[in-house]
Specification:
The complex is a heterodimer of chains A (354) and B (186). Chain A has 354 residues and is of the alpha+beta class. Chain A is built from seven helices and 15 strands. The relative contact order of chain B is 0.15. Chain B has five helices and two strands. The mean pLDDT of chain B is 92. Classes of the chains: A alpha+beta (354), B mainly alpha (186).
Chain lengths: 354, 186
């Protein structure tokens, strides 16, 4: 009897231990989505109820007009000639939903394109040419180094210095952040997929691609010292003002990777000589405040892909997908912290609402 | 009709689903705790496996209603008999609830529900509060399911190793039923 009970305890205890190990409870050093999202949410301000990264943003709606030239490369239905509705979001890459716009060095565009057959393409793109680091672990460490030290209310510069010392790839991003011109608008930015993906054609063949929403609006460059004078919400103000004069357009361009171009390292841009194919035009005709806007409750998970677009071997894609889901789960639970009642009119457009 | 053993179809369904459910629990807890590329693989297994469990449990419940189950040993203490009844009802309820909650939670969260390349319709309205409730329920009920599976396993081993009453072999034995089963048939 005693032996029987001991055997049962061993089996049950072993099962619990295996389960706990799989869930990461026995390996506190493992970077879980929850830890990643905690780190993203500790960069200042109060992100409860909001996205933990790119926390400050504005919704937009419009459509993507495929020109048909992508159909040879990919069976994604939105590449067939036609108009497909888009719900999107512009944001700045910060953790504080009330951050001043001049602190957002990286601006982003997220889109959700749907086709009549129920396919969806979600993509989060950034207005920088490459990612600062190449792996989820490095991105976690970089985020922790950017977190607010509760003692000083500021990030600890020693942590960032130490991070840079072991991550030489960060230097390229630092040089870009220092030298790339600032502008006063979301409209004049080109947004890059940064991660590589694969386009899958009718025969099942695939090739490596990166894509970009290339701005058609000319850049309105502003000296960094002048940015603060534009007001803390100048990006949303500028967007609404531009849309009151008419829609804004971006051209979707896919760049095809060469045989030896890295697809698993988002820090390495491909040579400029690679073939580029224009797939269509994104037309943005309305913007909405996020609190009541249609983009609020979408998770712009870059792994929500239509048939015809697939993941590459870039390890950041799985990490983004896992962390976005965790962030989404949190903010839907915290919705009461981010009231939906907007004080200002929520739709801004020169055209009548559809 | 009372028999000493579950029917072959019942035994097949039991062991197949046991493997699937245990795999599902480990895949689920593993995928929400990793940022590694395995995340995508695990998610792509989790959804079709969950749907398969839902389809199989429908079949299994029909078979169970039709064929019934061997009676419990008559000398089983009343509280153990009650625990057996309650835990089996709970296992069936969770086998139905978990896939349905997963599916409706994705629906409420505005996610496209694509299972092994097939688009399924949403089964819940798009609503962030509903998503939050279902998402939380999915986690806690998964832990409850794991606990119930362990209890079930412990009880089965208790019957086999401590009581030696033939309850485990009513589900676990392979081959034809021997006429000289030791177990008492009421």
């Amino acid at each position: 009897m005693g032996g029987a009970l001991a055997a049962i305890a061993l089996v049950v205890g072993g099962s619990v231990a295996a389960f706990a190990y799989t869930g990461g409870w026995l390996t506190p050093h493992r970077i879980t989505p929850a830890k990643m999202v905690d780190a993203l949410g500790a960069r200042g301000g109060n992100p409860v109820g909001h996205r933990r990264n790119h926390a400050k943003g504005v919704c937009f709606t419009g459509y993507f007009e495929g020109n048909g030239s992508g159909t040879a490369l990919s069976v994604a239905p939105m590449f067939a000639a036609g108009r497909y509705p888009v719900i999107g979001r512009f944001a700045i890459g910060v953790g504080d939903p009330l951050a001043k716009d001049e602190t957002g060095r990286v601006r982003s565009m997220a889109i959700r394109v749907t086709t009549p057959d129920g396919q969806e393409w979600r993509s989060g793109m950034n207005a920088m040419p490459f990612f600062p680091v190449g792996t989820p672990k490095a991105f976690y460490d970089l985020t922790v180094a950017s977190d607010i030290d509760p003692k000083t209310g500021q990030p600890d510069p020693a942590l960032m210095k130490a991070f840079g010392a072991v991550h030489p790839e960060l230097a390229a991003f630092g040089a870009w952040a220092k030298s790339a011109p600032w502008t006063s608008s979301y409209a004049d930015q080109t947004y890059n997929s940064i991660n590589a993906f694969r386009f899958v054609d009718r025969l099942g063949g695939s090739l490596a691609v990166r894509w970009a929403m290339v701005a058609t609006a000319p850049p309105t460059t502003v000296a960094p010292t002048e940015l603060a004078k534009l007001g803390s919400d100048f990006l949303a103000t500028d967007l609404k003002q531009r849309l009151s004069h008419g829609p804004l357009r971006w051209t979707l361009v896919a760049t095809l990777g060469g045989k030896d171009d890295p697809t698993n390292d988002a820090t390495k841009p491909w040579p400029a000589s690679r073939p580029a194919i224009t797939l269509g035009t994104l037309v943005v005709d309305q913007a909405q405040d996020e609190a009541n806007g249609p983009c609020r409750d979408y998770n712009y998970d870059p792994m929500i892909l239509p048939r015809g677009i697939a993941a590459s071997d870039d390890p950041l894609l799985a990490a983004r997908s896992a962390a976005y889901a965790n962030s989404f789960d949190r903010r839907t639970r915290e919705a009461s912290h981010y009231p939906r009642t907007a004080s200002a009119p929520s739709v801004f457009s020169g055209e009548p609402a559809k | 009709m009372t028999t000493a053993r579950f029917s072959p179809v019942q035994r097949l369904l039991h062991w197949l689903m046991a493997l699937m459910i245990i795999a599902m629990l480990f895949i689920g807890i593993g995928m929400v705790s990793t940022l590694k590329p395995a995340y995508l693989t695990l998610v792509s297994i989790h959804k079709p496996l969950g749907l398969a469990i839902l389809l199989l449990v429908i079949l299994r419940l029909m078979v169970r209603i039709r064929r019934g189950a061997p009676p419990l040993p008559t000398d089983l203490p009343w509280w153990q008999a009650l625990a057996a009844k309650v835990s089996h009802v709970l296992l069936y309820a969770l086998m139905f609830a978990m896939p349905l909650i997963g599916w409706s939670m994705l629906s409420a969260g505005g996610y496209p529900v694509v299972v092994a390349g097939v688009h399924l319709p949403p089964i819940a309205p798009r609503d962030d509060t509903l998503h939050a409730v279902l998402r939380t329920a999915h986690t806690w009920l998964a832990l409850l399911l794991f606990a119930t599976v362990l209890l079930h396993l412990a009880a089965a081993l208790f019957h086999a190793l401590a009581r030696r009453d033939g309850v485990l072999s009513s589900m676990a034995s392979i081959g034809r039923e021997k006429p000289q089963v030791k177990r008492q048939i009421s």
